[in-house]
Amino acid sequence: QVQLVESGGGLVQAGGSLRLSCAASETIFRINAMGWYRQAPGKQRELVATITSGGTTNYADSVKGRFTISREHAKNTVYLQMNNLKPEDTGVYYCNAVLSSGMDYWGKGTLVTVSS
């Protein structure tokens, strides 16, 4: 069982920045990949960014150049730095971890609200 705890969400004006954190109860060396997903009101959950155990990153086209995913092994934590935020970035952001077994786990989410 892997527990994921997100933090860092909040209210920010368009053009502002936030940094989300996801702390894992399992050493991230045992996790194949971690990622951030978001769900806007009335919409399906969508991928934002992922990072593999090898450090390969992947981003949704809508956030490329504005968001950066990174990880800190010593703290078993993955971050999402979000710059130049737009109102359409508003939503609940969820952390996801995929183990080598194929099982995946989700955090409870953190709300990001971007005002225009």
- The helix-strand sequence is EEEEEEEEEEE
Q: Please give the count of helices.
A: 0
Structural class: mainly beta
Average pLDDT metric: 94
| Cα end-to-end separation | 40 Å
Could you name the ranges where pLDDT drops below 50 across 5 or more consecutive residues? none
User: What is the overall shape?
Assistant: globular
Task: Say how many strands there are.
Answer: 11
What's the Cα radius of gyration?
Answer: 13 Å
Query: What characterizes the major β-sheet?
Result: 7 strands, mixed
Q: Can you give the helix content as a percent range?
A: under 10%
Q: How large is the share of residues in beta strands?
A: over 45%
Can you characterise this structure?
This protein has 116 residues and is mainly beta. Helix content is 0%, strand content 55%. It is built from no helices and 11 strands. The strands form 2 sheets. Strands 2, 4, 5, 6, 9, 10 and 11 form a 7-stranded mixed β-sheet that branches. A hairpin with a 6-residue loop joins strand 4 and strand 5. The radius of gyration is 13 Å and the shape is globular. It starts with a strand and ends with a strand. The model has no long low-confidence stretch (mean pLDDT 94).
